[in-house]
Design brief:
10 helices; four-stranded mixed β-sheet; alpha/beta; seven-stranded mixed β-sheet; 19 strands; Rossmann fold
Length: about 400
C-alpha cells in the first residue's frame, strides 16, 4: 500500500520553505537594486554607528567642474530659508528688513554645466559635523558665509539645543545634540595686523605683519574643517600697503600683490607644518568680487550696484576681482604638500551684481540714514551680500564637497 499521507506531509513542509526562500531572494534583489541608486555609509561616533543614505543625485559627478555654470531662476526651492526663519541674522545682511523693495536676489540657483549640486540637507551636514568643529576664517565677507551656514542648519535643531556665543574675535554656534560647532574667526589678512580686533579696528591706516600668525594659529589648531578667505582688506588701496617683515620697527610700503604673496606663504607654511590631513580638512575660498561701477556691465552713468535686480547673463570679469591675486593663490596652494581644496567662487559671484546689500545694509555698525540712502554713489555697499542670497550657494558647494568626501570615509 502506497504511503500517500507521508508524501503529502513532505510537500506540506517543502512548500513553505520554498516560499520563504523566494521571499528572501526577492527582498535581496530589491536591496541590491536600491543600492544601485543610493549608497550608505557608517562612522563610529559617540560609541555607536551612525547611518547616512546618500543617493546618486547627491553625489557630484566625477569630472564635473561645479564652479562653471550659470544662475537660473528658481522661486520654488530657493531661498533655502528666510530672514524671519533665521533670527540670528545681523542687520548688515537683512536687506528686506532694512527696506529693500525687491526679493528677486533670493530666487537664483547656481546650475553647474553638465551636473547638479546636491540639495542642501541640514541633518546630513550636522551628522558630518558630529563631534567636530567647522571654522570660517577671514573678514566680514567670510562672516557672511558663517551667518549663512548657521541659518541653513539652525531650523532643524530644537530650541534649547542650540546657541550662538560671541567672544573676542570669534562667533560660535553650538549644536548640542551633535557635540559640534560652526565658528567664525576674524582675521582679515590671515597674518597678523593692527586690524585684528573684530570691532575696534582701523580701516584707513592698515598695517600688516607679513611674517607672523602666532596669535591666530592658536585658534586654528585642532579644528576639523577650516575654511579660509582673505581679499577685500588687501585692496583698500589697490597698489600699496604698509607692512613689516621680521623687524617690527621697519614699516615699509609694499606692493599689494607682493605683500599678499608673502603673507599667503606665511599662512601656507603653518598649514604644511601643523595640519594633519588624516583628520583635518582645509579649504581656501577665492576672492568675493565687488561691483562698484555699473559701466562695467552695461552702459552706465557712473553708478554702482544700487538698483540692480538681475544677475549678469553674459561672460563678465570686472575690476572687483584681481587676476594677479588669483594667480598667487593658485601658485602658493599648488606648491603645498597638504591638500587644500580651493572653493573658486569668484566667477559665479561676478555675475551677481544684484545680490549686494547696497543701501540696505550697515555702515560702521549702523543702518544708513535717509540722507545716506539718497546718495548711493557714495554709500552703497557693493561688497557684502544680502542673506538669504549668494553666500548660501557658497555653502551649498561646501556641503556638496563635504558630503562627497565623507562618503569615501
Amino acid at each position: 500500500m502506497t504511503t500517500l499521507p507521508f508524501v503529502g506531509r513532505r510537500n506540506q513542509y517543502l512548500f513553505p520553505a520554498a516560499l520563504a526562500l523566494l521571499i528572501f531572494i526577492v527582498g535581496l534583489r530589491i536591496v541590491l537594486d536600491n543600492s544601485k541608486n543610493s549608497r550608505s555609509f557608517f562612522r563610529l561616533s559617540g560609541g555607536g554607528y551612525r547611518h547616512i543614505r546618500v543617493s546618486n543625485d547627491e553625489i557630484i559627478e566625477k569630472g564635473c567642474n561645479i564652479f562653471e555654470g550659470k544662475w537660473v531662476w528658481d522661486n520654488v526651492s530657493h531661498p533655502l530659508y528666510t530672514e524671519e526663519s533665521c533670527p540670528l541674522l545681523v542687520k548688515q545682511v537683512t536687506c528686506q528688513k532694512n527696506g529693500r523693495p525687491d526679493s528677486y536676489y533670493q530666487n537664483w540657483k547656481w546650475q553647474p554645466d553638465g551636473c547638479n549640486l546636491p540639495r542642501f540637507n541640514a541633518l546630513k551636514l550636522l551628522e558630518i559635523l558630529r563631534d567636530k568643529r567647522l571654522m570660517f576664517v577671514g573678514d566680514s565677507v567670510q562672516r557672511g558665509m558663517f551667518d549663512s551656514m548657521v541659518c541653513l542648519v539652525q531650523s532643524v535643531i530644537p530650541e534649547g539645543k542650540k546657541s550662538l556665543t560671541r567672544v573676542p574675535h570669534r562667533r560660535i554656534f553650538r549644536a548640542e545634540e551633535y557635540n559640534s560647532s560652526i565658528e567664525f574667526y576674524w582675521a582679515p589678512f590671515l597674518v597678523e595686523s593692527i586690524s585684528d580686533n573684530a570691532t575696534n579696528h582701523t580701516v584707513l591706516k592698515r598695517l600688516v605683519r607679513l611674517d607672523s600668525i602666532s596669535n591666530h594659529r592658536k585658534q586654528w589648531e585642532g579644528v576639523d574643517f577650516l575654511v579660509f578667505e582673505s581679499y577685500v582688506w588687501w585692496m583698500f588701496n589697490s597698489t600699496i600697503i604698509n607692512a613689516t617683515y621680521v623687524n617690527l620697527k621697519n614699516v615699509q610700503e609694499y606692493n599689494v600683490t607682493t605683500a599678499y604673496k608673502i603673507a599667503l606663504e606665511t599662512w601656507a607654511n603653518w598649514i604644511e607644518t601643523n595640519i594633519n590631513p588624516n583628520n583635518q580638512k582645509v579649504f581656501f575660498m577665492t576672492m568675493s568680487p565687488t561691483h562698484l561701477w555699473n559701466w562695467e556691465w552695461k552702459t552706465g552713468d557712473g553708478g554702482s550696484c544700487f538698483g540692480e535686480t538681475q544677475p549678469i547673463q553674459h561672460p563678465y570679469w570686472g575690476t572687483g576681482s584681481n587676476l594677479d591675486i588669483m594667480g598667487i593663490v593658485k601658485d602658493v596652494l599648488g606648491r603645498l604638500r597638504v591638500n587644500v581644496r580651493v572653493l573658486n567662487i569668484t566667477q559665479m559671484s561676478e555675475y551677481r551684481k544684484d545680490g549686494h546689500a547696497s543701501i540696505y545694509g550697515e555702515r560702521k555698525g549702523k543702518l544708513l540714514t535717509k540722507e545716506q540712502r539718497s546718495d548711493p554713489k557714495n554709500f552703497a555697499d557693493c561688497g557684502h551680500f544680502c542673506l538669504p542670497g549668494v553666500p548660501d550657494t557658497w555653502n551649498e558647494i561646501l556641503y556638496g564637497v563635504l558630503l562627497q568626501d565623507y562618503r569615501k570615509f
